[in-house]
Amino acid sequence: MLSTTVVIVAGLVWLGVLFGVAVYGERRPRVLEKRWAIVYALSLAIHCTSWTFYGTVTQASRSGWWLPPTFVGAIALYILGAGVMMRLVRLAREYNAGSLADLIAARLGRHSGLAALATAVMLLAIIPYIALQLKAVAMSYGVVRHGQTLGSPAWQDSALYVALLMALFAMLFGTRRASTVEHNRGLVLAVAFESLFKLVAMLALGALLLMPTHALSLPAQLPAAPDTSGFPALILLGALAMFAMPHQFHAGVVECRDVNHVRTARWLFPLYLLLIAAPILPLARLGDAVLRPAGVSSDLYVLALPLAQHHEGLALLAFLGGLSAATSMVVVATLALSLMVANHFAAPLMVRAGWGRDERGDLRGAVLLQRRVAIMCIVLLAWLYSRALASNDALADIGAISFSALAGLGPATWAALYRPQLRARAVGAGLLAGTLVWLYVLMPALFVAQPTWVTNGPLGWQGLAPDYLFGLHEWSRLGRAVMLNLAVNVAVMLLVARSRWGRAEPAAVSGSVELAGLRALAQRFLPAERVDGLIAGSGDV
């Protein structure tokens, strides 16, 4: 096993390298200017989180699929639907939108309540996904240091200190300017750099399979009864994740300097996903043959396989690859979420109450403080969630549930892109109804010991039980949650849109108090030409 000193020093050195790359990119904004389309395409690989190193191996072990289903959806969107991404980039630039919540609200009547609801749904989805990253880091540290995953008191939990470092990184590079419309070149360059590193790490692990001692251990056939339940839903979610996940929207839309860069990403990003996925199924099959009889979790094959063959250096490389993948996702996701929380929760309250102004009415300090507090709160909530996760929860299952929460943003995004005449009330009602149904269907997953009503249904009506709702008991729980989320979302949205309540809503009344206050305050410290652009978009000050 590797010593604690070696693992910790290697991790800190690698995080320091990422920090240095970010600083270099920010201080030299013209670096790689002529190749920025490639840098942009590589930054989209933030989609490959620690789940790629651990959870997708479990998926491959269960199903025998070479390509993870979420990758299939992401590849399909960029190859077949690149026009959607290009339209998102154009509209985000036109409305100065710093997040998907900003864009949806701006296109649908500047409705502050709809933006807040979209932000709440993203928090509901991404906090468990951040928790997954922290849990993966803690598990991988336990394996490379001790050869097993170990429970520990909170103050000894390695995930806590990693989370605090990630929060510090996000604060340093995301909360130094009040405006969010300027591109963060340093952060994008760091994400692209770590994308190359984790690709090298995964391919190095795959090269392990070329050794004769390993090739002889591979089973001749795939499992007789592969488990592909929920895969159609995951393919759909993989496509939606390209713009619904806060970190993916930030990397793919907000940080896109030129809409033509999407054309480069259309082929380079799918190629990247194909390359990083290439070793996953062979690693899963080898792990099943060599490690499963010993009781090793499939989530840990990428670390346990090199350790079993005494390749400590390769195991350390795999650990750093997973740490790097988790860091980039957590940093960008918390940064994006903090902007939404500050804009759509804190800013309206601050404007109404007159908080946070100095003697000149300058809000910049208060806005930056809000973002920093939001980053810390999000990271600590995710860490607490990771501590609460049951020890037998597979990372693949946690990731799938987190992805599924974002399905409801699909209809809202469609309305913002192609049907802006729909009222915010209708879109918000659909989003709320779909999310509540999603929560109800996935209710059994929240209980270790399930209450009777969860199994038998309220008042003993089994047809209303989460697993039997609408007669879809033969579907996988994930597929049922996603499809009912979307179906209820669209149905309620259309019903409300046709009702008098939905039609009666003025186009740009909601949020007018907040916007008027933001305009008055923003004019005190921003140039006049910037104020109109900011208010027309996200309302970010």
Please tell me about this protein's structure.
This protein is an all-alpha fold and 541 residues long. Helices cover 69% and strands 0% of the residues. It has 26 helices and no strands. Helix 17 (312-353) crosses helix 18 (364-388). It is globular. It starts with a helix and ends in a 5-residue tail after the last helix.
H-E string: HHHHHHHHHHHHHHHHHHHHHHHHHH
Coarse morphology: globular
Total beta strands: 0
Pick out the low-confidence regions. 506-521, 523-541
What structural class do helix, strand and pairing data support? mainly alpha
Sheet of most strands: none
**Euclidean distance between termini CA atoms:** 51 Å
What does the oligomeric state look like here? single chain
Tags for this model:
541 residues, 26 helices, 69% helix, disordered C terminus
Sequence-ordered SSE layout with sheet pairings:
Layout: H1 4-27, H2 36-43, H3 50-53, H4 55-63, H5 69-80, H6 82-94, H7 100-107, H8 112-146, H9 158-174, H10 185-207, H11 212-215, H12 231-244, H13 246-254, H14 261-277, H15 280-290, H16 301-308, H17 312-353, H18 364-388, H19 395-405, H20 409-418, H21 424-441, H22 452-456, H23 477-498, H24 500-503, H25 512-522, H26 528-536
Give the structure's gist in a few sentences.
The chain is mainly alpha-helical and 541 residues long. It is 69% helix and 0% strand.
